[in-house]
Amino acid sequence: MASLDIELALATDGDARPLAMLARDLIESGLGWAYRPPRLAALIHDADTVTVVARTRSQPIGFAIMRFGDERAHLILLAVKPEHQRRGIGRRLIEWLLESAYVAGIASVHIELRASNAPAYAFYRALGFAETIRVPGYYRGRETALRMIRMLRVARLPLG
């Protein structure tokens, strides 16, 4: 299935449960389940957060969630079902959010990922993200996080 067969759209109330299941199985594996349906529903309704869903035949197969601030945005979650990975779906989700961030005037986009996740690291590097720091024990005291950043423009400096 080509990525052209995939529809991207903003998440709706009905997406909270399937997205929470994807988060549990693909992102939080081995860490406990923090992004349960009520938390995903709250993110879907949060005015400062954008949740984009990739669907095929009306079924969610991937999603990305980004929170927007004044100058910076934070990619909270990104997941694509394994059988749909390496088909450009994750890239399309991230590109949607990067374009939204750029239009919103965001200076930088920040992410964290498990330091042991080499495929994710390569994916983000290919999208222009650069490593900034490693944070030991970030994931529930068990795993090191790798923080990355993508600059979209030069940040405004406060006057005075």
How would you describe the overall organization of this protein?
The protein is of the alpha+beta class. The chain has a domain of 107 residues: Gcn5-related N-acetyltransferase (GNAT) (Aminopeptidase, 3-Layer(aba) Sandwich). It is built from 4 helices and 7 strands; from the N terminus they run βααβββαβαββ. It has a 7-stranded mixed beta sheet with strand order 1-2-3-4-5-7-6, with helices on both faces. A hairpin with a 3-residue loop joins strand 6 and strand 7. Helix 1 crosses helix 2. The longest helix is centred in the middle third of the chain and has 15 residues. It is globular, with a radius of gyration of 16 Å. It starts with 6 loop residues before the first strand and ends in a 9-residue tail after the last strand. The model has no long low-confidence stretch (mean pLDDT 92).
Nutshell version of this structure?
By secondary structure, this protein is an alpha+beta fold. The chain has helices spanning 16-27, 37-45, 89-103, 118-126; strands at residues 7-10, 49-56, 59-68, 72-80, 108-114, 130-139, 143-151. The protein is 28% helix and 36% strand.
